[in-house]
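Q: What structure does this chain adopt?
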Amino acid sequence: MTSFSLSTYRREWFDGAAGARRDVLAGMVGTFALIPEVIAFSFVAGIDPEVGLFASFVIGIVIAVAGGRPAMISGAAGSVALVAAALVHAHGLPYLLAATVLAGLFQIVFGLIGLDVVMRFVSRSVRTGFVNALAILIFSAQVPQMLGVTWHSYAMIALGLAIIYLLPRLTTAIPSPLICIVVLTAIATAFPMSLPTIADLGRLPSSLPAFALPSVPAAWDTLVIVAPYALAMAAVGLLESMMTASVVDDLTETTSSKARECSGLGLANVAAGLFGGIAGCGMIGQTVGNIRYGGRGRLSTLVAGVFLLVVMVPLRPWVAQVPVAALVAIMIMVSISTFSWTSLRDLVRHPRVSGVVMLATVAVTVATHDLSAGVAVGVLLSGVFFAFKVTRLMDVAVDYDATADRRTYRVTGQIFFASADIFADRFDLRDTAAHVRIDLTHAHLWDVTAVGALEDIVARMRRHGIAVEVIGLNAASAILVDRHAPLVRDPAI
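A:
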C-alpha cells in the first residue's frame, strides 16, 4: 500500500495546465462511455435508468476525492447489478438502497482492516483473463444495438469507427470519440433517418438527485434481508475495483493504494444509497477509455461524474438525440483496446498451465457474465496448479549406515496439506534398522497436516521398536511441532 502524501495527492488532482486539459477531455469521453452501459445495467437490476445514472454521478464525485487510484472511473456496474436484481425483484427498490448503504459500510471496514491484500493471490494469468473477458463482454453488449436496425445504423457505426481511428493521425487536440459523437449527432439531426437514440434506451433523469434515507423499517428483519445481498455486493464490487485498479497500474506504470480504494468505494456507495442510487464499482471499459485518451489524474474521474449529470439534466434534450451508433462505435473501440492481444501469442510462449488459467477465467466470466465467478475460478486453478508444482519439488532421499544400523531419511522441499501424503509414503514404517533419523534441515513444515503426517510416521515406527530421531527442524517448523505434536521431539511422551 502506498503511503499518503499531501503533495502527491495535490499532484494527482492538478499536474499542470496540459494535464488538466487532458483529464477534462478524457473524462468527457468517459461520461459518454458510461451512459449506455449504466442504462443497460439498470435494466439488468430491474430499476429505472435514472437510479443507475444518479449512482454513477455520486460515486464519480466521491471516489475522485476519496479513492486510491487516480484516473479510475467508477459507476453502476453489471457485476453488482446481477447481485442486486434478486433483491429488487423480491423486496423492491427501498431495500436495494438500504443494501447499497450497508455494502458501502462493509467496504469501508474491509479497507480499514487491509482486506485488499487478497489481490496478492490473483496471478497475472487471472488478470489477463479478466481483461480479455471484459473486452468480450463489452463487445457482446453492443450486439443487441446492431440487431434489427436499418443500414443507416451500420453506416453510422462504420463512420464513427473511422473518425475514432483516423482522426488521431491528423490531430490529438480533442479526443476522437468526442468528435465522433458531435459529427454523428449533427448528421442525424441534419438528415433525419431511422436511427435509435439515447432517448430510446430508457427514461433519463429530469432532476437532480435528492438526499433521503432508504424507506425501510428500522428492524432486525430488515437487516436479515439486506445483509447477505449487501455483503455479496461489497465483495463483488471490491473485487472488480481492485482488478480494475491493477489494470490501470499496469497501463500507467504507477502504483496506487488499494486499501484507500476500498474505503473510498465504500464512502461512495454509502453516498449513492443515500441519494437514491445503486451500489457501484470500478468500470474497466470506461477506465481504459479514459486512460487511452490521456486521463491520468483525479480530475478526469470527477469530470466523468459531474459531466454525466450535466449532460443528463440541463442538456437532456440534446443528449437524448445522440445516436446510439456513436456510443456503439466508442464501446467497440474500448473493447478492442481493452483486449490483451499479446496474450494470444503468450498461449504458445508461456507455460501451458498459465494459458489454462487465463482461458478458464475468460470462459467462466463470459459464460456467467459474472466477473467474480471468473476470477474465483482463475484463482482456484492457480492455487491448485501451484500446489501440484510445489508438491513435485518435495523429495526424500534414504541412506543406510550399516555400522550404526541407522537409516537416515533426508527430506527436502515444502511439506503441507497437498504434499503430506506423498511425504508419508516415502517412509518404510516397518523399517528393519534399529535406529532411524529424519533430517528436516532442508525442509519446511507449513501446517498441521504436515505436522500430523510427521507425528504419525514417528509414532508408528516407535510402536515397532525403532528408535526415531528428528533433526534439522527450523524455528517455524519447531514451533508447530512443539505445539501440535510434542512426542515427535520427546521420545518419552
